[in-house]
Amino acid sequence: MRESRLKIFSGNSNKALAEDICRSIGVPLGQATVTSFPDGETFVKIDENIRGHDVFIIQSTCPPTNQHLMELLIMIDAARRASANRITAVMPFYGYARQDRKDQPRVPITAKLVANLLVSAGANRILTMDLHSQQIQGFFDIPVDHLYASPVFFDYLSKTRTENLVVCSPDIGGMKMAAAYADLLGGSLGMVAKRRKSATTVEAISVVGEVDGCDILLVDDITETAGTLVAAATMLRERGGRRIRAAVSHCILNEIAYERIRGGIIDELITTNSVPIDTKGLPVTVLSVARLLGQAIERINTNESITSLFRIKGF
Question: What is the Cα–Cα distance from 311 to 88, expressed in whole angstroms?
C-alpha cells in the first residue's frame, strides 16, 4: 500500500483540536518539537520526513497572539525548507482580523500584514473559519478556503428550536449573519444598535424589531470581553425578551468576560473549540469543529471541492 502523502502538524495554540481533527479522519498527528529558548525565541523542529508531502499546520492565532503567530510562521518556514510539496496553514481562528482597514489616521492594516507574513514564510494555501470580515480573503495572493461554523451551530440549535424566536445581531455589521440564522431557524430578525465607549465597554442604544415575550438568539463572530453581548442582552431583557442565548464562533474570553457572563444576563453562550476555552462552570456550551475542518483537509489533500461543507442538513 502506497504511503499517504498527507501530514498534519500542530503548534501549541490548540493541540487538543488538532488531535480531534486527526482522529476524525484517521490520520496520526505529526511529530514536531515546538518550544522556546530561555530568551523567548521560538524553536521548531519537524521530527519526521515530509519531503514531497502535503503538509497541514494547525494553529489558531489566539492569545498569546504574537507567540502563536511566530510559531506558525516558523513552522511554515521549517516545512518549506524540508521540501514539503504543499503547505496549508489551518487557522481555525485568524488573529488580528479586526484590524482590517484604516478607520483612523496613522494606523496599520494588520490583517493584511499577517497575510503577507504567511505567504512570505512559505504558505501555499490558507484554511480558516468565520473570518471577522470577508474582505480578508482578498488580502492573500494564494487560495483561501473559508469555512463557516453555521452548520455546526444549526445542528445544535435545531434541537431546541422555539416558535417565537428572534435572531438578533448585536451590531449592524452582523446583520447578514443574523439574517442567515433567522432563515434557517424560522425566526424573526432584530438588531441592537450600539456605541463603543472603550475597548472593553459598549453601550446599547436601541433595539430594532419586536422582542417582547420572545426567545432571543444573539449571533456574532467573535467576543473577547463579552461587552457587546451583555450590553445587547441587557437592553433586550428590558424590552421584554425571555430566554437569551448567544452563538459566537470564536470566544477569546478574558476575566472581564467571565465576570460578565457570571452575571446571568445571558442564559447560554454557545461557541466552538476554534480556540481553547475554559467554561469555569458557567453556562457555556462548546461545539466541536474538528469534523468540519477534518473533512476540509481531506478534500484539499485529494483536490476535491469543499462546497458541500457549506450545506446544512435538510436545506
Answer: 23
Q: Please indicate whether residue 159 is annotated as part of the active site.
A: no
Architecture of domain 150-287: 3-Layer(aba) Sandwich (3.40)
Instruction: Single out the catalytic residue among 194, 197, 280, 313.
Output: 194
Q: What is the pLDDT of residues 86-145, one digit of tens each?
A: 999 999 999 999 999 998 999 999 999 999 999 999 999 999 999 998 899 999 999 999
List, in sequence order, every beta strand (DSSP E) within the chain.
6-10, 32-36, 42-46, 54-58, 86-91, 125-129, 144-147, 165-169, 188-196, 202-208, 215-223, 244-251, 268-272, 284-287
Domain residue extents for the chain: 6-148+290-305, 150-287
Contacts of 157 by beta carbon, 8 Å cutoff, 6+ apart: 181, 185, 217, 247, 270
Digit-coded pLDDT (tens) for 15-50: 999 999 999 999 999 999 999 999 999 999 999 999
d(CA 30, CA 254) in angstroms, rounded, equals 31
CATH class of domain segment(s) 6-148+290-305: alpha beta
Phi then psi dihedrals of residue 305, to 5 deg: -70, 145
Q: Is the pTM of this model over 0.85?
A: yes
Q: Which three cell numbers stand for residue 281?
A: 462552570
